[in-house]
Design brief:
Elements lengths: L3 E4 L2 E3 L5 E7 L8 E7 L6 E7 L3 E4 L7 E6 L4 E6 L8 E8 L3 E3 L3 E5 L2
Parallel strand pairs: 2-11
Antiparallel strand pairs: 1-3, 3-8, 4-5, 4-9, 5-6, 7-8, 9-10, 9-11
Length: 114
Amino acid sequence: QVQLVESGGGLVQPGGSLRLSCAASGRISSFNTLGWFRQAPGKQRELVAIIISGVSTHYADSVTGRFTISRDNAKNTVYLQMNSLKPEDTAVYYCKATGARVYWGQGTQVTVSS
């Protein structure tokens, strides 16, 4: 059983930055896909960014050019660097790891407000 623990969320002003971390209890190199999703109140959970096979990345149109996903296999951690944050980025952000099984973290709240 793998556990994913997100951290780094918080309250930030529009235009600010945050870096989210997702620490895995197992080796993240064993997962085909690692990604970040988010869910705003009253909305469905949506894809933010993913890394596929440790090589290719994909971003939602709404965050392209502002967010960057990365991974550190030595630390078994996935990151999401978020710059130029907007109020519409406010959501609970979840980490997801997909391999033989799918694992989700518990989520971390990001609030963008002045």
